[in-house]
Specification:
Strand order of the largest sheet: 1-2-3-4-5
Structural class: alpha/beta
Number of strands: 5
Order of helices and strands: HHHHEEEHEHHE
Strand content: 15-25%
Distance between the termini: 59 Å
Amino acid sequence: MATALGWSQSHVSRLERLVQIDEVSVVELAELAGMLGLELGAGLYPIGDGLVDRGHQALLSRFRHLMSPSIQITSEVPLLRAGLRSWDLLLRMAGQLVGVEAETRIRDAQELVRRIRIRERDGGADLILIVLSDSRHNREAVDELRQMLGANYVTSPRRILAALRSGQTLPGSGVVLV
């Protein structure tokens, strides 16, 4: 078996005795299983709230607390034409439909702009708010993001937040740090 796999006899022996088993790769296990006429299988199963979503959920919670109770908020609303994509939040307020895209950290501004362009095209919202966590990294990157988004996203964050707090119509699409 060792010869057929191209492994040393001592490596196979260590596997058989479960010595240094934490150093065996998934690829090696699959090769070994195949040699024995078996197929290696693995599965991933949810065990609760994922760590990745905790920051995102905390950001959305902070954002929700800034808004007037008169604003109707719906979570995870599918876009009209984009299959599995959805708005993080959809706000119904004063005759406006506002799509909200929340990001804990700007990792790739170009990719974020591409997602926003899809939402502009397929989202069915009158305006779009990009809600970012108020971190040093995001504060440093937000001006570049606004520039990449263009003239439709220059509305002052203060004006946006004031409108959200009072439940009034938003003056335009924009980017806010929360």
